[in-house]
Design goal:
By secondary structure, the protein is an all-alpha fold. The protein has one domain (about 1-70). Helices cover about 75% and strands about 0% of the residues. The chain has helices at about 1-25, 35-65. The chain is elongated and about 55 Å long. Keywords: Membrane, Transmembrane, Transmembrane helix.
C-alpha cells in the first residue's frame, strides 16, 4: 500500500507544480483584449496540460505494475 501512496503523492506534487507554472502564463491572458494574443497564450498553456495528462497516465501504469508485483528492471540483472 505504501508504494501506491508514494506514487500518488509524487504525481500530485508534480501536477501542482506544473499547473502553477502553466497558470503563470494563463493569468495575464485575462487582461489582454487582443484575441490573437489570447490564442497564442492558450497554445503555450496546452503543453502544460498535456504534461499533467502524461503524469497521470504514468501513475496509472506504475500502479498497474505494482499490482502485478513485477520486480524492477534493475533487479533482473
Amino acid at each position: 500500500m505504501g508504494k501506491y501512496i508514494s506514487t500518488i503523492i509524487i504525481t500530485i506534487i508534480f501536477s501542482i507544480i506544473i499547473l502553477l507554472y502553466g497558470s503563470a502564463f494563463l493569468i495575464p491572458m485575462f487582461g489582454i483584449g487582443n484575441s490573437m494574443a489570447k490564442l497564442l497564450l492558450i497554445i503555450i498553456v496546452l503543453p502544460f496540460i498535456a504534461l499533467v495528462g502524461a503524469l497521470i497516465y504514468n501513475m496509472y501504469e506504475r500502479i498497474k505494475e505494482i499490482k502485478e508485483d513485477n520486480k524492477d528492471d534493475i533487479s533482473k540483472y
